[in-house]
ROK family protein
Amino acid sequence: MLSLNSVDQEIIKDSNRKRILQLLSKKREATKQEIAKELEISIPTVTTNINALIEEGILEEAGVAESTGGRKPVIVRFLPNSRYSFGVDFSLYFVRVALTNLDSDIIYETTFKIEGFSNMNEVIRKIERITKDILREKKIPTEKVLGIGFSLPGTVNEEKMLLEMAPNLKIKNISFKEFDHILEFPVYIENEANAAALAELSVGIAKQLRNLVYISITKGIGTGIVIQDYLYKGKNKRAGEFGHMTVVADGKQCNCGKKGCWELYASDRALLEQYKEKTGKNNITLKEFFEALKRNQTEARAVWEEYLNYLAVGIQNIILILDPHYIVIGGEISRYDEILEPLKEKVFIENTFYSKQDIKIMTSTLKGNASLLGASLLPLQKLFFIREKII
Ligand SMILES: [Zn+2]
């Protein structure tokens, strides 16, 4: 006779609890009978889990439903503000810190400017002070915070808690294990584009999508690959470093040691540098660039055309390699409407392999917040997700 060993029983118990939570976070409220029916688990199992979750303050009783005979069934309600999470997003010049609830609503957000990341201990200490201030201001007890997630622009080994390298930040081999004693909560880390892809899957445009490539366009380019709901990271956690695929043989020198990398031609920094070269204008922001483009300024128009050509070449390569259902473009540049249609025109030029009907290209609905929200989702995964969504 087959019997379940205790490990299997633990997994089933844990997965029942997570399935109930997932269902209630979507439906907001339901009776035990409805939950049991929808998830096909027994009423006693539902009751045990619901009681524990009420005890923990994640659910509450919210009146009674109409009876179909017998006692009126009790309605239980999901409480999105019963737990919180911190998300931290590192970029070249800024660190963003956000407090979110279980619905991934941003409760509080702050940004600080940074000279560099060479003294990571100091950066983490500053973040620790900020998180304390936020909790004090919002009157949230520390024990209600599930953890702090970091979105990092580099190669991240989340199992070893190691930022292996981040060429653009000029740092490598940073162990986040050591920051556990500075920060008061469990620490989680993920690559920036992977975190953004996770956010798109959980709360953004891709809620119903299962295969997608998220392209994060910032000072560099990162990509997150999702296959059948799983984040694909590969053997050495380096899958999806498309920002460093060669698009110009013997091209510009990259920080990574190679030449002609995609991000040197298709990141927002590359766009603004090209514009600076053409016009001699320093310190132009993306907003100012797009204003010039709207005025149909000749230089802006020329730089934009060339930029889109390079962006399209990289996307065409990604389509040929992965054949994804969707490509989601994120980062500040995705906020501008000017990007999508002309980009599609260039990607879907007449070719043997694919057409507009095969792959959908879209811009992120989370816009500049995707990686920040993804970071804050990392601690929530332990509460909600049944399996680690990484392969
Ligand atoms: Zn490179």
Observations:
- The chain has three domains: 6-78, 83-197, 205-365.
- The pocket of zinc ion is lined by residues 244, 254, 256, 258, 261 (CB under 6 Å).
